[in-house]
Amino acid sequence: MSEVHIEQTIAQTEEYEREPVPNSQLKSWKSFLGMYAGEHVAGTEFMIGPLFLTAGVSAFDLIIGLLLGNFMAVLCWRYLTAEIAVKHRITLYYQLEKICGKQLVTVYNVANGVLFCFLAGSMITVSTTAVGIPFDLPMPKLDDTMPNGIPWVLIVLVTGAVISIIAARGYDSVSKAANWMSPFIVLAFIAAGIVAIGQLGVKNFSEFWNIWGDGGEPFPGKIKYTFWHVVLWSWFCNAAMHIGMSDLSVLRYARKASAGWTTAAGMFVGHYMAWIAAALLYAVYLRSPEAQGYLTQGIAPPVAPGPMAYNAIGIFGILAVILASWTTANPTIYRAGLAFQAIFPKSSTFWMTILAGSIATIAGIFPAFAMKLLDFVALYGFILAPIGAVIVFEHFFAKRFGVQTEYAEKAGIHFNVAVLAAWLLSAGVCYALSVSQGIFLSFLTLPAWLACGILYLLISKMMQKKQLLG
Question: Which residue ranges traverse the bilayer (predicted)?
Answer without folding.
Answer: 51-80, 107-130, 150-168, 180-202, 225-244, 265-288, 308-329, 350-370, 376-393, 413-434, 440-459
